[in-house]
Amino acid sequence: MISRFSKFLPESVSAVQPTVDVADLVEESVAVFDVKLKVHAWNAEAERLYGWARHDVIGGAIQAAVRCAPSEALAVILAKVHKHGEWRGEFVRTTKTGTTVVVKAKWSLRKDSEGNPIDIVETSRDITEILRSEEAFAQMRYQYQNLFQASVASFWKLEFSAVTQLLLVLKESGVTDFAQYFSENPDFVRQLIRETRILDVNERTVAMFGKREDIVQSLDPFWPDESLPVFAASVLASIERKPHFSAETVFQSLDGQRYDTLFTVSYPPELRTSARFLVGIIDITQTKRARAAQERSERRYRDFFHFLPVALLRLDGREVTEVFRDARMAGVTDFRRHLDLHPELLDRLLDGLKIAELNHRAVEVLRGISSEDFAGIPVARYWTESREAFKDVMSARFSGQKGYETQLRMVTHDGTVIDTLFFAAFGPVTGEEHTSLVGLIDVSDRVKAQDMLAKIQADIAHAARVSVLGELTASIAHEVSQPLTAIEANTEASLLWLGHVEPNIAEVRELSARTAAEVQRAAEILQRIRSMAMRAGPVKAPVSINPLIDEAVLFLDHELTRQRIEVKLELDRKLPLLIGDRVQLQQVIVNLAINAIQSMTSGPTAPKVLSIRTFSNDPTSQIIEVEDTGPGITPEANDRLFEGFFTTKPSGMGIGLAICRSIIEAHGGHIVARNLSDRPGAAFTIDLPLLPPR
Amino acid sequence: MNTPVISIIDDDEPTRSAVAALMRAKGFSPSTFDSAEGFLEARGQETAQCIITDIFMPGLSGIELKQRLNADACSVPVIMISARFEDRLQTAALEAGAFCVLRKPFKAHALIQCVERALLR
User: Which residues of A touch B14 (CB under 8 A)?
Assistant: First the structure.
């Protein structure tokens, strides 16, 4: 090694110090490497600077020893060295211990006599400290300039000799606890303020408080009563020989303008004897206002977040930022497709997004007990039913939308699946953390209610058709009465002809044919009414009776409430399904209930109670009973109750019970009516088999 | 033999024919019209001894027909029949001077009695 260095150092030096390499005496780090960057020499300073001993480095590549972040690529540097014979620049290198050093380096190319490159000598010097102090200097200069420019501060030169006198007198009078004395004697503090003389002020003070000649008198007008304690405290600080005092307080100008200020006073020892102090006042009205506004806004956000009756969650996740960044670097524009192609990314997002915060309502909606159940939990478990929707949400986020809303299914903390209205507000795209605010509205009940409503509406439409029949009574009566009139007249005419001495058989035959035609016409009218009341093709499907009753009561709720009728349901909830047409069966129940309501409102009945019971006496049938507390069924009516067009109501048609019976019989069942034995009222009993006849 | 002419006005053909058959069976001479306008056009009031008319028909109603006849000082008795019968309608018919009013479906005997009484007047 020594010999190697000796070779390219002057002979004289080598001769003087044969045992010490002259390169070790140099204050700079010296390394020699060949054009392929393989190290041949490494001096003591290089060992010290980079931490690598010679034997660690020699024979290896220079960049292996000192990891390097050069300003230029090594290849470029080498090219320059070959072209110009040298290169100067800076490296940021990592030493053996891992610390980073900035070095100023010079590479020199040595050539043999024929001009062929032999090796490169690098000399480098650690400039980390220099840079650091340069930086510190720059920072100091910046701060100084700031200070210099801080003419925003108002400065007052004050004179306290009278104040000092007053305090001495007070001390001689035996007062020891000045703090207590000041707080008990605000007038004394006021006197101190009055006795404080203003010697001089700066321009800023003039701008804030009034004309210089008006200001340069007593401090009194500028110091409002509410700020007395601050003055007292500043005097105490002085008495206690504190170097400075500062507090937020209110000042007022000569024309009454009030300022929130930061008040500072320093008591340099050299000024104490002269009882003159420099006071600085910085108007922080704007700052205070801004701070208050910020606090209000923050509070509003907190209130909004925590007390809004909508579930809100704040989600954080560095993963999202990373996945987005990678995707953008890969040139992805269609993020939805990107997720389809890389399903693992979806899981990374779902696992990476965590609940940072959620409000009370969110805990409720997601079926948790407290917000701690959710702290830091990845959102993956809530999205298992809506992975596709999650892709859409992320895709919206990726494309820079500010928010997104949709309807989707969430899996709650306890595993229940709920339908929700989902809306997200995305935080700023820049920044390391992905933050978004998510709102959830549980619409499960509403979805269920909508389904039910749709069903009931269909049923109501049907029931409405039936009730329209009632309104059509007059025209139906008119229609039916025509054939009946003709039948009656034809029949009577026939009888008259037959009673003649010479019966006109031809005429009678003609009349009989006409009569038959009219009977057919009447039958067609009835069929029309029937098909209107009962849908064309009954649907036979498994049906549960109790829900039909619940819905029927719901359907009649308005009428029941209006007529002040109490409803008593005694439903055997364990009844099995039976096979039937749910709409038709419900129509029967509605009809019977309407009958009951009408019977109870036709006369003075109290109390009005509609009772509906379901039960079963044997495993092959079910029984529905509808009872009222009306006047009951008259004996005359009892026999003809279920006949078409029989009615006891002044405006009724008598179609209702006839249709009920035909529906029940079509289901293979029976319907009977009776009066209650123990009290007034009628009961209709339906006996339905589980299976209808074939 | 002078068989009384009974005019029957009804827009419902089966009813019209059936009433006519009944009248014929009773030995009367029925003449039928499907509207009041048709009856007036044929000047049916000049031959009829009794008029049986439906009340609700397209065009002139039975009551309006009676009012026209009253205006012409025609005193042929008019029997009114109708499937719709509110009290108001019955009053209106009687006020117009209907000889009798029957609600469909009526008993054939009731109509025959009305006609016979009308002819006796």
Answer: 482-483, 486, 514, 517-518, 521
